[in-house]
Amino acid sequence: MNTSDAAQSPNAATRAKAALQRDPWDLPDVSGLVVGVLGGTGDQGRGLAYRLAVAGQKVIIGSRAAERARTAADELGLGIEGAENAECARRSDVVIVAVPWEGHAKTLTALREPLAGKLVVDCVNPLGFDKKGAYALKPEEGSAAEQAAALLPESRVTAAFHHLSAVLLQDPATERIDTDVMVLGESRADTDVVQALAARIPGMRGVFAGRLRGAHQVESLVANLIAVNRRYKAHAGLRVTDV
Asked: Cα–Cα distance between 31 and 199 in angstroms, integer?
């Protein structure tokens, strides 16, 4: 260990100890952040864009076709803007990835440069469907979020917003969505930001749920929620008890 390492190690240990002692519900003010939603013309992305904009967040919808994004933004109103994916990524502080699983890798590969340095929130669920219903797929990297991290080495990748009903998100008559959002990532500063964004939506909490290596379990649970919703004709979400 050189002199520089010796000097930095105690500081790193002190910072880590301080982080553990912080109130986990002491979250940052994220009201001034611009949130981009890639795949914002799809049901899930459109719903998230709507809810965040209603909460007062500046939102930009991204799509492969700029005109399609602008049309969706105009339909939603609330000051939401539409742009081609790369422009959406460049202009945003936080970028939510809500594209179909089939286009996940291709989309992110093409956006590596505009997403560099950005906080990326992956909410994609790799699922397959057959006569028995929905089932989880496991990407080579382990999960959609881990695939995103591998494809975006210069971005700060987190995972969240997997278990939300697109129907409820888009329904103006639904004023509250009482559910918890599982948030995973490698940096507490980043997961705190995502938790704070979730908490801006009435009824929601963002709950830290571990590092990205645990994202597969979270993504896979959507297959179970689909089965619940079909059986009970519901729009089920999740609640974490005792926190």
From this structure: 11
